[in-house]
């Protein structure tokens, strides 16, 4: 049978097919350490954020700086520099065409290291994220190289620093995306008016902002220190007793001394700072804390006190009880479970009402911005959302901590978007992106699901084995959370759904299909969700729907791009969702998008993607008010939350 199949296909097809078949499950590097930098009685943290010096390489000669050793001295000695804020994307800072630069750019700055840091401790340099690839030098010495945006990396720099003296850090950042990066892109040489030029293209629909996107820290640890903490939690059936399982790894010489039996003292404090549980570890540096009368972690609007967090204090002690290191982190006690119909938190079925989002803003691009983050969470709560997907890459660690505090559930997505041209190399990078993501985010109670890709080409040859390997790998790293992917191919063509726990689908009825036809939304949404469920017998989420909307454009009757149209498109979807909710397996609705965002230039985008419910400046469009009424109505119906006083505007006492 195989023979006759092969004889029917072309040589190229056979080659592709066999490449797909020989994908193997190779090991990927495992992340170590990388605890979020926090001060304690044994640790100091210093920020290197601020204005750095910046040079762009000649696009036609991206490796010149490495060959000419620009890192060996101040950048300004090699090239004229310009000031560049860190953290920020560099693209929208200047008034020239830096926005569209392809290839490498360089940053440097000087900093002092205090004399006191020379004493018996270790110093680490940590980046929250650099997009896409980073090479780092300290005082001209190579420190670390990291590929993959949106994820942290660090290296020990103890022996490279000058103590009580000035030091220099140099970073080269490369934004080029090719077919084996995550996400994928293409670099081509194209004729322009002056000869030839390098062009970066990609199929995904957001601007490829680049640079040092998140904070840069130096931090100290003792010689022997807490390198990793992993926490999982459990609740008794009646939700009165909580269990916190912790496991710690230690790095340092004391850990290797035969006569030194290191142990952990773990203390758990409630919000008021009262000690509610403590334990001393076994020889494996792990153990369990039991919390009576526990306050579980609940999502926003599912409980009067959402986002309840305890503080876990981990003390590393030597045999003689000498205190070696202390690290503290917040812990939410909750359980997750799922079956072919439902997703449950603390035993209660969840209905997700949320958004796909982007880290995106005017001027700073994808740079970490606390003002924007706090504003966004205020808007999420104002509108009554209980969840968002980190479409289409990991968001800042600070925002994950904020989601924990505020009870916002996260579908945590790796940076694989529009995945195609499956290859062994891509598979390795894709798995690594998930490994780094899970290592970073595994302790966040807000993270309730992993999304292994957005709109992968799951109808293509090889997609089945590729996604089976990616999903199984993800499961091997974390069995406590379900796995999804946001799929856009028709369900009849999809080959990845069988490897997922929850099916998410993206569809733009009345926009990309049947543009303008508001009468062609509701039934299509119902039919497609039913078809996905029939095919896989798994819970279904609509992970994207929406319509581009230019704020201030009004048209009655509704017409594409107007505020009326977006409002109507939402309303037609709501009707479908309510029908689907009755079926028991439809578990969530996510609008695309929370806010307008920047894309590559194209004739389909006016200044970017305008499907936001909020403008890029984070002000509501008309549809935001409608969505708010729905999300709170769902909250009241499903979770007995109360309505905000200003949810309905008084019209007349004739209408109630
Ligand atoms: C999608 C993509 C998202 C796009 C959106 C759109 O399906 O997942 O990244 O921005 O459609 O607006 O086209």
UniProtKB/TrEMBL annotation:
Residues 45-222 form the Glycosyl hydrolases family 2 sugar binding domain. Residues 224-334 form the Glycoside hydrolase family 2 immunoglobulin-like beta-sandwich domain. GO terms for cellular component: extracellular space; lysosome. It catalyses: a beta-D-glucuronoside + H2O = D-glucuronate + an alcohol. Inhibited by L-aspartic acid. GO terms for biological process: carbohydrate metabolic process; glucuronoside catabolic process. PROSITE patterns: GLYCOSYL_HYDROL_F2_1, GLYCOSYL_HYDROL_F2_2. Gene3D superfamilies: Galactose-binding domain-like, Glycosidases, Immunoglobulins. Its EC number is 3.2.1.31. It is found in: Lysosome. InterPro entries: Beta-gal/glucu_dom_sf, Galactose-bd-like_sf, GH, Glyco_hydro_2, Glyco_hydro_2_AS, Glyco_hydro_2_cat, Glyco_hydro_2_CS, Glyco_hydro_2_N. Its main location: other. One of its GO terms (molecular function) is beta-glucuronidase activity. Residues 340-632 form the Glycoside hydrolase family 2 catalytic domain. It comes from the Eukaryota. Keywords: Glycoprotein, Glycosidase, Hydrolase, Lysosome, Signal. Homotetramer. Plays an important role in the degradation of dermatan and keratan sulfates. This is Beta-glucuronidase. The gene is Dyak\GE13860.
């Amino acid at each position: 049978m195989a023979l006759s199949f092969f004889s029917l296909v072309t040589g190229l097809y056979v080659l592709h097919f066999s490449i797909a078949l020989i994908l193997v499950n190779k090991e990927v590097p495992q992340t170590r350490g990388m605890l979020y930098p926090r001060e304690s009685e044994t640790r100091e943290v210093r920020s290197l954020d601020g204005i750095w010096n910046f040079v762009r390489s000649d696009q036609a000669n991206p490796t010149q700086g490495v060959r000419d050793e620009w890192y060996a001295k101040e950048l300004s000695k090699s090239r004229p520099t310009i000031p560049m804020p860190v953290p920020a994307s560099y693209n929208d800072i200047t008034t020239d065409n830096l926005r569209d630069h392809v290839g490498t750019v360089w940053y440097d700055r000087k900093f002092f290291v205090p004399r006191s840091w020379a004493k018996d401790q270790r110093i680490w340099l940590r980046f929250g994220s650099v997009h896409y690839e980073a090479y780092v030098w300290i005082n001209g010495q190579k420190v670390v190289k990291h590929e993959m945006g949106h994820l942290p990396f660090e290296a020990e720099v103890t022996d490279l620093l000058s103590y009580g003296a000035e030091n220099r850090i140099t970073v080269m950042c490369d934004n080029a995306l090719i077919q084996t990066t995550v996400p994928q892109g293409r670099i081509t040489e194209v004729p322009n008016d002056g000869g030839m030029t390098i062009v970066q293209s990609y199929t995904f629909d957001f601007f490829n902002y680049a640079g040092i996107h998140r904070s840069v820290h130096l931090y100290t640890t003792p010689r022997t220190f807490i390198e990793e903490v992993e926490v999982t939690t459990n609740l008794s059936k009646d939700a009165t007793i909580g269990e916190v399982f912790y496991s710690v790894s230690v790095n340092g010489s004391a850990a290797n001394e035969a006569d030194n039996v290191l142990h952990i003292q773990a203390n758990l404090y409630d919000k008021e700072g009262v000690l509610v549980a403590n334990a001393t570890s076994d020889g494996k540096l792990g153990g369990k804390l039991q919390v009576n009368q526990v306050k579980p972690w609940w999502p926003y609007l599912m409980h009067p006190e959402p986002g309840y967090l305890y503080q876990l204090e981990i003390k590393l002690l030597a045999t003689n009880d000498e205190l070696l290191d202390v690290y503290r982190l917040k812990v939410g006690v909750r359980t997750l479970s799922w079956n072919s119909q439902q997703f449950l938190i603390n035993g209660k079925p969840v209905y997700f009402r949320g958004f796909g989002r982007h880290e995106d803003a005017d001027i700073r691009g994808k740079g970490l911005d606390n003002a924007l983050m706090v504003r966004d969470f205020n808007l999420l709560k104002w509108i009554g959302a209980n969840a968002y997907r980190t479409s289409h890459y990991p968001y800042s660690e600070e925002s994950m901590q904020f989601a924990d505090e505020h009870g916002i559930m996260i579908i945590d997505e790796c940076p694989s978007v529009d995945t195609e041209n499956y290859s062994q190399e891509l598979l390795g990078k894709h798995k690594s992106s998930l490994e780094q993501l899970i290592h970073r985010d595994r302790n966040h109670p807000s993270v309730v699901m992993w999304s292994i890709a957005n709109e992968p080409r799951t109808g293509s040859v090889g997609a089945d084995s590729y996604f089976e390997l990616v999903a199984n790998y993800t499961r091997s790293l974390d069995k406590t959370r379900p796995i999804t992917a946001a799929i856009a191919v028709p369900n009849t063509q999809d080959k990845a759904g069988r490897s997922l726990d929850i099916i998410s689908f993206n569809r733009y009825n009345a926009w990309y299909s049947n543009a303008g036809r508001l009468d062609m939304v509701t039934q299509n949404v119902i039919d497609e969700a039913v078809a996905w469920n029939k095919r896989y017998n798994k819970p279904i989420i609509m992970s994207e729907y929406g319509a581009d909307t230019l704020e201030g454009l009004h048209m009655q009757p509704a017409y594409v791009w107007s505020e009326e149209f977006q409002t109507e498109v939402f309303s037609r979807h709501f009707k479908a969702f309510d029908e689907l909710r009755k079926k028991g397996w439809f578990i969530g609705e996510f609008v695309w998008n929370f806010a307008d965002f920047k894309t590559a230039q194209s004739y389909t985008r006016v200044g970017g993607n305008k499907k936001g419910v909020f403008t890029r400046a984070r002000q509501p469009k008309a549809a935001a008010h409608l969505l708010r009424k729905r999300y709170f109505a769902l909250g009241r119906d499903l979770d007995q939350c109360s309505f905000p006083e200003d949810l309905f505007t008084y019209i007349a006492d004739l209408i109630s």
